[in-house]
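Two proteins, back to back. First:
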Amino acid sequence: MRKFLTIVKRETWREIKSLKIIVIAVIMLAIILGTIPLISSSFQSSSPQFGLLVAPFNNNGSMAMKLLVIDNTGSPVSISGNLSYIYYNNDTRVFISNFKTSSSSTITIYSDIPFSNYVNQPRNFFEASVSGINISTFIFIDVSDSLSISYWDIVSPSNSSLPGIAILVTSFDGKVPSNFSIYINNTLAGIPNNFGYFRAYGTGNVTYKYMNTSGFIKFLSPIKGISITVEEVITSLSSSLISLFVPIAAIIAGYDAFAKEKVSGALDIILSRPLKRETVYWGKILGAFIPIFIYFTIISLLSLLFLMHYGIFFTPLEILSLVASVSFLTFVFIILEGISGFFGRSVATPIIWGIVIWIFFNMIYSIFSLVVIFISGTNILSTGAVKIENIIGLGNPIDIARYITYFSIPNSQILIYGVSFADTVIASLAWIIVTVLIFIYLSKKFE
């Protein structure tokens, strides 16, 4: 054991000082740190972050309003802003008031605008400015039932492809109407809470029932494309960079620690000493593995510290998945480079084979999926094609590493469509076991 640890220590220290690996790690870190501000700013300048719900009622002949600001999943938020009322027929804008909303209930805003002006409009339009973003909402008025219904499109917090609706309702006397209920596709979705707010998720016709009447609100259609967060984009970017740079670093480490010495004959000199071959071989493999793991773990931690500056935080599962992805790719490609060392005829042969393997799995392997999709007659833009591509990807260690990180992303259904977590675990274990067995077989064959 002492001799084994000595070999591991020597190889680890040598690879830690390797200028080639340091350069690769620095380039990857620079790309991550350089793109994070761009991604963060682009997300902050796009997609609205809030929704506005305004339910007017009659306050002694003047219009008063219940107001609620929500996030894109329908959760009420506490935030400051200002509210304006726009006459829909002639686009006349009237400033009403500044406000600060509550995350636990509605707030009430009063105005001098005659309530009759509101009731007589074909449609009413309210606009609020919140954190520099203008958000607006339409009000559905049921004059016969004396109801004000405000609604906003939302998405499910657990599945961003599932739409939903947030509703704020009040009667013209300012009270929450009793016996008011919401239906989606004729199925009861729920009733408003004690301040008139309600949210639900689904697809189809959204209708309401009140007393003996009913009305149509809107149609919820499936969301095309998956709405993702900045955290998910960065996780995906990190996964792609890991899949690109870690195998190269692993190939270089495997070449320096084992393959080059095997071909040059330096390893035979070491083996002439009273040492077991297994001790030398696995000591060098582990010694090549540890530096890559250390470097890219440090990169991950530095990236996390940098992300905190932008208010972006990774979950423990996302961090663990990135570390697992690095570990898997590092080990497999070091072993593959070690295997190439048994067939090398010159010092350059193993590194050439390592580059060929990297090019094959990074660029050429995906062609197999396209061939299978073409032969099967599957539409290349369909989910069936995505499923075929993902299943075939289980034979590629680089794709497996991506799957490992994708499973930590909440809204990753399309990225891993057709592949389960168990499939990914089995495929990764199969790659580790098969490559290790081949390495052991060749080490005995060429002994």
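And the second protein:
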Amino acid sequence: MRNPPWARDELILALDLYFRNNLTQMDKTNDEVIKLSKILNSLHIHSSIPDETLFRNPNGVTMKLANFMRFDPKSHGSGLARGGKLEEQIWNEFANRPDYLRKVAQSIIDNGSIRESEILDDEEEGFSEGTVLFRKHKVIERNRKIVNEVKSKALAEGNLRCVVCKFDFFKVYGEVGYGYIECHHTVPVSEYTSNMKTKAKDLALVCSNCHRMLHRRRPWLTIDSLQNLISQDEH
């Protein structure tokens, strides 16, 4: 069996290395290539790795860097022609934003210990910054202690409703909706670190529909931008 195709997270890390180093020195003996190979092997992204000896080894990393060259105007079309469509997507999304790419790559490295079994969600596949940061985002949103703290405060103040559309589950559904609301973490995923602490002020109370809409567009919509979309529709 073949090893799994490169995931979005892995390609983001490879593209970051592509821009940070002199490609003429990027071979399987290069220290940065070897370092990236080890990082890729430490990420908990793939559920099955049939051949661990070949999985994201330094030679494979070098070939992936060469794949990116075919999109680079500076390389004049050189590089390895064979590659997946996802490489071009990653290039188009991040090549003109090297500073953001660097932040996202570092954040993926910092949060790479989150395992696949910890969280599953049908939105994960379309998340532009990759699986690792999406899972980190969802783990934060499901942190029972801080979420309950935010919800309890709003409930005590009689303000447990969606900050975007003002939907109140209790008013609409009665007793079955009492105390129910979802939380959205508003800190950009590029700023996630391994030891970051979730603060109450970074969580926004939202209804299920608005939460989905906040996650639907890439990059994610902000609370204000979604409120503006609703206001425009009303007028």
